[in-house]
Specification:
There is one protein chain. Helices cover 55% and strands 6% of the residues. It is mostly helical and 528 residues long. The protein starts with a helix and ends with a helix.
Length: 528
């Protein structure tokens, strides 16, 4: 039954990016615990000193204590800084805040018109660097009580770390014509002014400026902050990443290498290292579970939509079960009536193979875990998802340690933790289910009811792929494909640690990176 016109007019059709509530487990629950203060797009370390410099200049020049005025000031300075980064004399190809808007103007001949970096309040600072700087204890955000009164705009805390961060960037650029004059006018920017600014200020230069580099390092890892536990966790996670890089340098260039290394790290250097390694391994396990369930979801949506169209109506409960039973067609070598425990036994024996899309046979037991995650992503079938889930559960069996147990037990508001999922799977397998039974167990517990709850919570945005209407489950042609994983910080970990001089590139495809002396000292200091 269609909605009344007065209701329908207020509804907005959107596909939705997290239809099963699994991304939020990573983004909102796991990563804030594992790597506090580092956002996915907080990727360049020099932006921390640059934004501290802007706040200091705004304060020192007694600009209006008004958020709109501060926002405009920051966005204009980010635009000019972006022009400089795109004019790097080394052609470093760094991507500044507002790169898309800047790419056209920056490639033309000067002089360059003024502009603003991005449209959102406070620009890239507000999107990517404000929250980290606040967590680092560098910035007091508007509304913070200082001197017993809430402050109207963001300001730097009066600490040595905050002052050093702003002062060292200023020291690098205060000789330039941009800082001495152009920064404070509205005139078009001459090419030579931007080129001189680029030479001093480009993002790639930080690792060559010891005082500023050390100030940024202290901002991220300094211990003179009220939240000492967050600093400790951040140091451990970055140290763990560097230990992985030392063992397999491909983690800086390959997400697959990064994920496999996180799941199977080298021997921990200390008890603290073992804890943080277990935490990150649990995150990787959660993402394998997400991809496996996504395969079940994707095929269910495709087949359910086709059946809805065929019947011209929604599906009864029994018809929905029949659709779930039909999902076994995606892997013809699997017998849908066989016991799921027989599949698990094949995995334990190392005898189960799955055909990839190119016809090659993949031994599920011996393949690296992230290869299996990508395999079910390519096959996009419910049975491949089931096989990968069973193998994940087998590999998780016997995993112990405080870090593993802590992170594996983290759930979202919509989905249980990976530990709860595998515990539930063990209980389910004890009942000797068939493959069809187990697919229905996944669909009826983790797909249909969860998606409906999420979609209803998003009204007036319409994100339903299916919903119960008058006792029938109706599927909609509203994006029936896969949903993406949340980013797991491999890009910011690689770029921030490079900016801080903790590793360097190497001219070797097999070992594209190597820890610097600074990087080795950091690992020893943090991990033992």
């Amino acid at each position: 039954m269609p909605a009344p016109a007065w209701i329908e007019a207020s509804l907005k059709l959107k596909e939705g990016r997290d239809p099963l509530g699994l991304q939020t487990t990573t983004q909102d629950r796991l990563l804030p615990v594992l790597l506090p203060g580092i956002l996915e797009l907080s990727r360049r370390a020099r932006y921390f000193s640059f934004h501290a410099f802007l706040l200091a200049e705004y304060r020192d020049r007694h600009r209006a204590a008004d958020s709109n005025t501060l926002s405009a000031f920051i966005k204009r300075r980010e635009w000019e800084y972006g022009l400089a980064v795109l004019h790097c004399p080394r052609d470093c190809r760094s991507s500044p805040v507002g790169a898309r808007k800047l790419s056209g103007p920056a490639m033309g001949p000067g002089p360059y018109a003024r502009g603003e970096s991005v449209e959102s309040p406070f620009g890239g600072y507000g999107l990517y660097y404000r929250s980290p700087l606040a967590e680092f204890g560098i910035v007091a955000r508007a509304g913070t009580l200082l001197g017993g009164r809430p402050i109207p705009i963001d300001v730097l805390y009066d600490t040595d770390r905050a002052r050093r961060l702003a002062d060292t960037f200023k020291s690098a650029v205060e000789h330039t014509a941009y800082y001495r004059r152009a920064m404070w006018t509205t005139d078009d920017l001459p090419t030579d002014v931007i080129d001189e600014y680029a030479q001093a200020a480009c993002l790639c230069r930080l690792r060559e400026l010891p005082q500023e580099r050390d100030a940024v390092h202290a901002a991220l890892f300094g211990t003179d902050t009220p939240d000492a536990e967050a600093v400790r966790q951040r140091r451990l996670s970055v140290g763990h990443y560097l230990s992985l890089l030392d063992a397999d340098p491909c983690v800086v260039t390959s997400e697959a290498a990064y994920r496999n290394a996180m799941w199977s790290p080298p021997t921990p250097r200390s008890d603290a290292h073992a804890v943080v390694a277990g935490e990150w391994a649990a995150l990787m396990a959660k993402d394998v579970w997400q991809e496996a369930l996504c395969s079940v979801w994707s095929e269910l949506c495709r087949v359910g939509l086709a059946r809805t169209r065929e019947l011209g109506r929604g599906l009864t409960w029994d018809e929905t079960r029949m659709v779930a039973a039909g999902l076994t067609a995606g892997q013809p070598e699997l017998d849908p009536t066989s016991l799921t425990t027989a599949l698990a036994a094949q995995l334990a024996a190392g005898t189960l193979e799955v055909s990839d899309i190119d016809g090659t046979h993949v031994n599920v037991t011996t393949a690296p875990l992230d290869d299996l995650r990508r395999l079910t992503d390519r096959l996009d079938t419910a049975t491949s998802g089931l096989v990968v889930l069973l193998e994940l559960a087998r590999r998780m069996d016997g995993r112990t340690g405080d870090g593993w147990q802590k992170a594996a037990a983290i759930r979202s508001g919509w989905q249980p933790s990976i530990a709860a999922v595998t515990a539930g799977l063990r209980t389910h397998l004890a009942e000797s289910p068939t493959v069809v039974d187990t697919l229905w167990w996944l669909v009826s517990r983790f797909v249909i009811p969860v998606h409906e709850r999420i979609a209803y919570s998003k009204l007036p945005e319409i994100t339903f792929r299916f919903r119960w209407e008058d006792g029938l489950l109706r599927f909609y042609d509203h994006g029936v494909g896969r949903f993406p994983l949340a980013a797991v910080r491999n890009a910011p970990l690689a770029s921030l640690t490079w900016d801080l001089g903790l590793w360097s590139e190497a001219d070797d495809e097999r070992r594209p990176a190597t820890l610097t002396a600074r990087g080795k000292r950091f690992v020893e200091e943090v991990l033992g």
